[in-house]
């Protein structure tokens, strides 16, 4: 087996290299929400991962410079929403700095534990945070699912090469 010429010259790992490598990785798109007092906060995440079935746990990353980090650093519960391909604009809104994420265009309600729950997601969970693990300029949040629901059908939204995409058959 021979290496592809484009992959034959290793480069020193840098933030730019890491970003360019992960542009090649397709990831599911989720929105993480929390309540900061009476104010809802949320952000788009592509780092969501299932961690354990017993107990049901997941993880996601969040930058400590994120406007949502203060809320996530203090709250006990977060909402995790798996977005469908019909929710590209919602994903973009929650990814955009300074956007009115919970404005009139966003349909949501206060859910269990006071966590904002977004309408129309393929699935959602309210999770209890069990750990916040330092990882460079981020924290890996480990959370145990408490309650949730899922749609009967729908196709997931993906993030690849810097864009939101739909699955192709």
TrEMBL record:
Keyword Hydrolase: no
Enzyme Commission number: 1.-.-.-
Keywords associated with the record: Oxidoreductase
Domain of life: Bacteria
Domain Flavin reductase like span(s) in chain numbering: 22-166
UniProt enzyme class: oxidoreductase
GO molecular function annotation: oxidoreductase activity
Keyword presence, Manganese: no
The name this protein goes by in its record: Flavin reductase family protein
Originating species: Streptomyces atriruber
